[in-house]
Amino acid sequence: MLYPLLRPLLFRMDAETAHEHTLSMLDKAYSLHLTSLAVDAPTRRPVEAMGLTFPNAVGLAAGLDKNGEHIDALAALGFGFIEIGTITPRPQDGNPKPRLFRVPEHQGIINRMGFNNLGVDVLLDNVRRCRFKGVLGINIGKNAVTPIENAVDDYLICLDKVYAYASYVTVNISSPNTKNLRQLQQGDELARLLSQLKTRQQALADQHGRYVPLAVKIAPDLDDEQIVEIARLLTEHKIDGVIATNTTLSRAEIAGHPLQDEAGGLSGAPVRERATTLIRKLARELDGSLPIIGVGGILAGKDAVEKLQAGASLVQVYSGLIYRGPQLVSECTRAVAEELARRQ
């Protein structure tokens, strides 16, 4: 309820500065037990996916809390699961500022953050300190200085370190802001990456006595042939889930806007239809072999339902929070619960 009053003030700030202020205020509200004043209680409707039970189907997408510094405060907003990261083996500053831009006329966001984070060890320290006992996803990537041909080494380092602390691990091969990263979505390279990750996952499961699912996050800018190939490889390598989608490089949806030439990935409302279309095609190819987590342009409950109707089992939000605030979470949980009840 408070966010509509705060948004005009936040939108006068630089976008990245506003992001940091918002998280700081959220932490303060949580510490003072005031979070309930900002949001309605979420609608509980458990969902089974990837061998896990989610209290509700609406999660937080990676990128908002890169270092896992705000897990408890974010969980108090009513998410059914939280995904933190993207994290890399070593700390890195990311791309030069400014690197985050609002496109309010289209309810969009352009970012070229570049996996800025404090490194996997700092993230794990934060996870150990948090009280959250729900479903926690940890999103892993590669350092910018690591050659693309050695990318798997970075993913394996991160997988080894986060395995004991994650409910599931997301392999991010679709950010447009790390040079050549999306190359890993291509047939032979993706096959090699998935093969090595799956082998290590099984070894870690034996070592820890606990199976942690692997999900892969893909881009919305894939053609039909690429979608077919990715679906085949995900199924063949027994990957546990797929997150569709990341941000888009397309500017068709904001053509003519002064920010259309800013480098980076575009998210929010402009990517909604593109992401939903990909989810629908991907679901057709996967034919239920693994669950889809739908992301991209969810700014209302009906948008979350649209992702489910396209074939997703779960959804995640991020950019929508910037425009709608925490109330988006309870709205989406309610709409999704109604959709799931309707199906029974």
Structural overview:
It is a single chain. With 344 residues, this protein is α/β, with parallel strands linked by helices. The chain has a single domain, classed as TIM Barrel (Alpha-Beta Barrel), CATH 3.20.20. It is 39% helix and 16% strand. It has eleven helices and 13 strands. The strands form three sheets. It has an eight-stranded parallel barrel, surrounded by four helices. The chain has a three-stranded antiparallel sheet with strand order 5-6-11, with no helix packed on it. A two-stranded antiparallel sheet has the order 1-2. Helix 6 links the parallel strand 8 and strand 9. Helix 5 runs parallel beside helix 6. It is globular. The two termini are 32 Å apart.
List the helices and strands and how they pair.
Layout: H1 3-10, H2 15-31, E1 47-49, E2 52-54, E3 58-60, H3 71-75, E4 81-87, E5 100-103, E6 108-111, H4 120-129, E7 135-140, H5 151-162, E8 168-172, H6 187-208, E9 214-218, H7 224-236, E10 241-244, E11 265-268, H8 272-286, E12 292-295, H9 301-310, E13 314-317, H10 319-324, H11 327-343
Parallel strand pairs: 3-4, 3-13, 4-7, 7-8, 8-9, 9-10, 10-12, 12-13
Antiparallel strand pairs: 1-2, 5-6, 6-11
Helix segment count? 11
Instruction: Write down the CATH topology.
Output: TIM Barrel
Number of strands: 13
Number of domains: 1
Please identify the top-level CATH class.
Answer: Alpha Beta
User: What helical percentage do the residues reach?
Assistant: 25-40%
| Beta content | 15-25%
Mean pLDDT: 97
* Strand order within the widest beta sheet: 3-4-7-8-9-10-12-13
Taking the sheet with the most strands, its summary is: 8 strands, parallel, barrel
Helix-and-strand structural type: alpha/beta
N to C succession of SSEs: HHEEEHEEEHEHEHEHEEHEHEHH
CATH superfamily: Aldolase class I
Q: What Rg do the Cα atoms give?
A: 19 Å
Instruction: Give unreliable regions as ranges.
Output: none
Q: What distance separates the N and C termini?
A: 32 Å
| CATH architecture classification | Alpha-Beta Barrel
Choose one word for the global shape.
globular
